[in-house]
Structures are given as structure tokens and as C-alpha cells.
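# nightly structure sweep
# worker-07 picked up a monomer target from the shared queue
# config: single-sequence mode, recycle default, output format = C-alpha cells
# input follows
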Amino acid sequence: MGIMTIAPLRELKKWRFRENSTVFVYVLLGRIEIAYGKTVKEFVAGGSVYFDGAVEHRFKNFDNDEAKLFLVTRPSLH
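# output follows
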């Protein structure tokens, strides 16, 4: 678990975790787009999502301000 910061107008590359993994994201600040599988959703501060980490996913900050996310993965990435 940890805090992820995404610079303004930045899109992170797509990635996926191993089988039987999960991802929880809570948006602390900003406006982001999260794509996982065929689903694409916009989230603002206070929004959250939980999805299968083995599905390819990406984060995109399409705002002019920095975005901050609280990110939890199971199993841990470290």
C-alpha cells in the first residue's frame, strides 16, 4: 500500500500483476481516468475502485493539476 502521485496530463503505461491479485485505488486529489480490461472510468477526489490486478490496467491524469492516489495491492508489490 502507498501513495502514488501522477504529474499533470501524464498517462502511465499499461501493466498487470500476476494471477490472483487485486488492486484498490482511492483518489485523494485530482481527476484521473482508470482503464482496466474493457472498462474505462473517470474518478475524482473521494472516488474509489477495486479490480482484478491480473487484468491489464492503466492510470491517466487528464487534469492540469497533480493527482494523488492511495493504492493497495494484494499481494504486496514489495
